[in-house]
Amino acid sequence: LGEQVSELILTLGTNTEVQDYAAVAVSDLVAGLLAGNPVASIVGDAVGAAVAGLLASEGVVASVGSVIGGLLPDLFAQPGLVPAISDALGNAVSALVAGQDTATVIADLIQTLQASVAVQTGLGAFTADALNGLLGDATLWDALGEQVSVLILTLGTNTEVQDYAAETVSALVAGLLGGIPVASIVGDAVGAAVAGLLASQGVVASVAAVIGGLLPDLFAQPGLVAAVADAVGAATSALVAGQDTATVIADLIQTL
Fold first, then answer.
1. ∠107-110-113 over CA atoms, to 5°?
2. 249 to each of 132, 157, 230, 239, how far by Cα in Å?
3. CA–CA separation, 25 and 217 (whole Å)
4. Residue (of 22, 5, 108) closest to 66 by Cα position
5. Nearest 10 degrees: CA dihedral of 146, 147, 153, 159?
6. Taking the CA of residue 197 as centre, how many other CA atoms within 13 Å lie in the half-sphere pointing to its CB?
7. How far is Cα 121 from Cα 81, in angstroms, rounded to an integer?
8. Per-residue b/e over 140-176, b at no fewer than 16 CB within 10 Å?
9. How many CB atoms lie within 10 A of CB 98?
């Protein structure tokens, strides 16, 4: 089943019609979220194109598909997980057949699974394995970094976006200066400076290249992915065991 999931992802993700549909769907979604913003459609189209570009990047879909397809067998290969789930479900079925209240049976089932060490450690290990696979996928992060760079370049060099940035910064600065008589003058000047910076030859491209390179650089740091994956895996085990969410998050932050 894992192999077929990988194959399904590869087949769909590398299909140009699916990629085009993904671009349109994402574009519409983003534009809808930004409804009322004068650059909504521009941003939507740029993000949609970035998604299609990511799917079309060599090796990305195959790499992600392989990781995702491996998650199912990895999950059910966790020591003791299958027997723990089977036994808990068997008891729940017996209780239902005996006429016990459905809500009570489900609550007892959840409590039984949460109390199972095999379930706690299994889901924690599974989470760690999943994060190791995804965060450690250099092909994915290199391609995503490239698309982030393209997205920044596309938006930053668009004159309508530059004008919108100038207006937004101008209003922000004027608002911060409150009742100062020259607030609007200063705001307009700063806004114009921002637009001028974006319009300066090579600036956006240079900044885009730097920002786009941050993602692959981050996850390429020695030991980082393993440390994050192990910490989140431990947090998952704690959550499954029923520990307080705020405490788990605080412990996760402290561990990292």
1. 150
2. 20, 40, 14, 9
3. 30
4. 5
5. 170
6. 11
7. 9
8. bbbbbbbbbbbbbbbbbbbeebbebbbbebbeebbee
9. 8
Q: 208: pLDDT confidence band, cut at 50, 70 and 90?
A: very high
Q: Identify the residue whose tokens are 């491209």.
A: 205
The CA distance from 175 to 130, in Å, is: 46
pLDDT per residue as tens digits for the range 134-164: 999 999 999 999 999 999 999 999 999 999 9
Return the sign of the alpha-carbon dihedral for residues 126, 131, 137, 143: positive
Give SS3 for 15.
coil
User: Quick one: which of 142, 5, 139, 133 has its CA closest to 59?
Assistant: 139
- Helix, strand, or coil (residue 100): coil
Give the number of other CB atoms < 10 A from CB of residue 214.
12
Is the pTM above the cut of 0.70? yes
Q: Kindly give the residue spans of alpha helices, DSSP state H, lying in the chain.
A: 2-13, 16-33, 40-56, 60-69, 71-76, 81-97, 102-115, 117-135, 138-156, 159-176, 183-199, 203-212, 214-219, 224-240, 245-255
Task: Please state, in angstroms and rounded to a whole number, the distance separating the CA atoms of residues 145 and 248.
Answer: 31
- Closest of 123, 124, 128 to residue 85, by C-alpha: 123
d(CA 102, CA 229) in angstroms, rounded, equals 36
